[in-house]
Structures are given as structure tokens and as C-alpha cells.
Amino acid sequence: MITPNIVTPRRVFFGAQTPYVQTLLAICFVCLVFQLTHAQVMTPNLEGETFQSPDRRSSTVACSFNIGKGGQITFSVTGLAVGPHPGTFLETGKITFDSLGVVTSAEISFSIKAPIGFITGKKTASDGRAFCTLDERTGTTTLGASIPTLNYTADVAGSPDSGTATLDLFASIDPRDGLTTLQFTEIFHSSNVERSTPGKVTGGGNIVPLDRNTGMTFGFNAQNTDNGMKGAGTVIDHIAGVKVKILEVQTFVISGTHATFTGTAEVNGVEEKFRIDVDDLGEPGGGLDSFRIVTDSYGGGGTLSGGNIQIHK
User: Fold this and answer.
1) What would you measure as the largest C-alpha separation in the chain, in angstroms?
2) Burial 158-185 (b: 16+ CB within 10 A, else e)
3) Is 99 helix (H, G, I), strand (E, B) or coil?
4) For a disulfide at 299, which of 37, 119, 143, 312, Cβ 3.0-4.6 Å?
5) Are the beta carbons of 249 and 220 closer than 8 angstroms?
6) 3-class DSSP state for residue 198?
């Protein structure tokens, strides 16, 4: 009689992981923390986004015009998107204008192929100026449009955004060579951006985990006055081996006992964007106040072990 070879299923208990499993879980945790901190830096709006450097070879522009009745400009333009979401953009639209060159309507759709994925949106307008002329001698068509206020809605990495944008378009079309000149620029201004407020915030101290003898030390000052924004400071994470030096403050907001400021900083010698959030909850601040910083590659902070945060309105 042949005895069957019975294989007992192997059971894995996560309560007693092997060193390999523990290492794998640690790596996954570090990756998750990096993704979360990096996501905080990503800007979920189009504030400051600019469309420029149109590609004449892959863009098309046309115009029809009836004397005494007005006209219509249609376009499909590709180019570079710069700002918080760099990449390439595609924008298509139709602009109509009356016999005096006043824009009566503009219906535009756009997309940005950015590192965070596709950003899509639509824009409308009912003001601005536009023109379209034909040189009967050469057959060259010249057209342009300048719209100071386009209202837009967009989806930015799953976050809704809205605001205004400006548009400047100029093109010339030669009947023999096609599109010979193309200038196209747009700038976005999000209504979802928290506008800066006046005031000053200062702070310094340390944040040390309970199971460690060392941790993070920091000192900083930032302010927004009639003379503009400025700030300085240094953050050192002795455990992670990270040193952050604040270079420039670009936004500054105080809301009650909480303050936020953003800008650029050197992180171990490499320039990155940063955001600092602080809470002034008592005097002195040890065990009460909090400090948190996030850059493009680093994030850390917590409740102060010692030191103080002061918000001056």
C-alpha cells in the first residue's frame, strides 16, 4: 500500500514575524510615511500655474470674421505648464467676439500631464478683446485675444479647485506655410488659496521621543508686515540626519492660536519647498505648543518637549 505524501499547510503568525518579515514591514511603513508627507506638500490647486512656450508644430489656430458681425477664434494649443504642477498642457477652445472686438463668450477646456497625474478643467469668460484680420495682398491671417478674467473649475489630483485665469493669444497664419507665429500665455489664480495675513511668529525648542535621548531641535522666526514677508530658521532632526535651513518665506497665515508659513529651504543642501505649522497653546510651551515641518523629502514634528512658540498678531 502506498502511503500518500500529506503536506501540512504552513501557518504564518504575524505576532511572531521572522526578521525578513519585520524588515519588509518596516520598509513598507517608511514608504507610506514618505508618501503621506509628500502628499501634504503637493498643492491641490492651480495657484500660480502658468501656460507658456506653445508648440507651433502641434498646435492649430483658426479664425472666421464677418465685417459688421464679429467673428470666432478656435484653437488647440500645446505647450509647457510651469508652477506647482509642471508638465505639458493641452488647451482647446472657442472665443467669439462682436463687431467692435469685444469678447462675448469663451468656452475652453484644458488638461495638464503632470507628475501627480492628469489635471483637467474648464474655463468660461464673457469679457476681453479679440480681433481677426486678413492681409489680402499676402493672404496672411492675423488674430489675437486678451482676456483678463476667465473663470475656471478643475480637478487637481481628486481635489476640486476653482478661480480665475488670464489669457493672451496671438497668431499669424500664412496660406503657404501655415501657422508661422504663435504666442500663448495663461496664468491661474486659485480661489482656494488661504490668503496671507499680517503678523509675526517666533519659536524654538526641542521634540524628543519618550524612548530616545535626542530628537529634533529647531529655532525660527517669520513675519508678514507692510514691508513684505521674511523669515529665517534652522531645523535639525538628529535621528533622521536631516538639517533644514529656511531661505525664503512666501506665504504667512495666522488663525487664532495656529500659524502656517511656507516657502523655500535647503534640506541637507538641496533646495526644496517647505510648510511649517505651529500652535501657541501656553506659556511656556513645553508639553503644550506644537511644531511640524514638511518638505518635498522630509516630514517631522510634534508636541514640544521643551521650548516655546509665540504668535504675535
Assistant:
1) 104
2) eeebebbbbbebbbbbeeeeebeebebe
3) coil
4) 37
5) no
6) coil
